[in-house]
Amino acid sequence: REGRGIRQGNENEEVAIYRYVTKGTFDAYNWSLVENKQRFISQVMTSKAVSRSCEDIDEATLSYAEIKAVATGNPLIKEKMEIDNDVQRLKLLKASYDNQRYGLQDNFMIKYPKLIKTATEKLANVREDVKARDKKLIDNPEFAITIGKATYTERVDGGTMMLEAISKCKTGETTAIGKFHGFELLVEKNFLGINYMVLRGKTEYKAELSTSPVGSMVKLENLFNGLHENIDFLEKKIEQYQNDLEASKAEYDKPFAYSEELNEKLA
Length: 267
What we know:
Elements (H helix, E strand, L loop, with lengths): L26 H19 L13 H14 L2 H65 L5 E3 L2 E3 L2 H13 L6 E7 L2 E7 L5 E6 L3 E5 L4 H13 L3 H24 L6 H8 L1
Helix pairs in contact: 1-2, 2-3, 3-6, 3-7, 4-5
Protein name: Helicase
Keywords: Coiled coil
């Protein structure tokens, strides 16, 4: 601590702090105690990991170590202490490097392979759904929606009955209410008051509901007619995941930049 030199209420714009130490005295031991105490405090008070810069080492800890080195009066001991400080910096950087590699390894061995697998499987399902949609539109291009056990060929009637069915569904659940061109039609109601229509084929497609019967039918048809748009989206996601995987692997393979310096100082 700097005593009462630096504190709230001090009206002086600048404060000069002097540290006095005598070579070859017990001061070296005292500064060693201060250094160790500061190092412990710094480890408790700072939770951030050291990244790519040596400046992340606590300045107060190094300052105390340097004063301790000067106090010894022995140039060899001073040199050793300076090397010890450098080693400490480099070891912290190495620990940060190792920690980062664990995350990168998880990325290219677990995270991205899993994302790629899931997206690839969904892409295959979307392609199957698009084929089924196209066949339905060729076989029966006219509008028709089934709500419950009744089928409606007018959009206003279909939309009205769909909204009525939705009003009876429980909040927080996804409930099947009918069919649309061979796809199962469900409604999802959440606790935020937002309702979604869901089309389920090999996979699911979702769009927010309108409050009007005709508006709901327009959104439903847009969702159905736009199934193929998911193909382009998923292909881009898979490509992105693959690029991220390769970038993680390349970063993982980079050697520790200060490995040679650390080995030299440890020798």
